[in-house]
Write a structure and sequence with these properties.
Layout (H helix, E strand, L loop, with lengths): L1 E12 L6 H23 L4 H15 L5 H23 L13 E4 L4 E4 L4 E6 L2 E6 L13 E10 L2 E14 L6 E5 L4 E5 L1
Antiparallel strand pairs: 1-7, 2-6, 3-4, 4-5, 6-7, 8-9
Length: 192
């Protein structure tokens, strides 16, 4: 039997958010916009090249910021700039790209999720902070799954942590088949 990796994203709504996160969101947006401008002016689409050319300068400007935030800002900036270039070629983008959202990309070094205690520990310029999240029933199915990247997202409804989980599963050989037809008013099933 062969195995396959399944990836699912779960959303965790944070309860109380400290004021320090406001500074982190604005600093992150500032760095991403600096990197997008740098990539635009120098026509850089490679994450590695952008990181190589800007990392030292950014570490000097933001010495209190954990270094993995610099890596994730470079990843976001290159993704945004590549998307902008594709849209520009199709005539769907004007001007210069700009990052306006309250989103922070986190790698596995910047946060630790504890499903048991319903908390997430987040690295910030002031050290690690513990934040509680509202539990949901579907969170339980992710116990034992591997935790990957995450995004901290601030919306008018609150601050959310979107976490990507992965798990290796065995793929069995199918026996027969099931055909499904989703019409407007009914569902039709057929099996062998």
């Amino acid at each position: 039997m062969s195995s396959e990796t399944i990836k699912l994203t779960a959303r965790f709504k944070l309860k109380e958010v400290s004021e320090g996160l406001d500074d982190l969101f604005s600093t992150y947006r500032e760095i991403v916009n600096f990197l997008i401008t740098y990539a635009h002016e120098n026509n850089i689409t490679s994450f590695y090249r952008l990181k190589k050319e800007t990392y030292k300068n950014l570490r000097e400007r933001y010495p209190e910021l954990p270094s993995h935030y610099i890596y994730t800002t470079c990843q976001m900036a290159t993704a945004i700039y590549k998307s902008y270039r594709k849209r520009k070629r199709k005539g769907k983008a004007n001007g210069k790209p700009l990052f306006k959202k309250d989103v922070i990309m986190l790698d596995d070094h910047l946060f630790k999720l504890d499903l048991e205690n319903k908390t997430v520990r987040l690295s910030t310029p002031r050290g690690r902070i513990a934040l509680e999240f509202y539990p949901a029933k579907y969170h339980e199915k992710f116990r034992g799954w591997k935790i990957g990247q995450a995004w901290l997202v601030r919306t008018p409804k609150g601050v959310f942590l979107n976490v990507v989980f992965s798990k290796e599963v065995e793929v069995g050989k199918p026996e027969g088949f099931v055909g499904v037809d989703l019409n407007e008013n009914n569902v039709t099933l057929s099996s062998k």
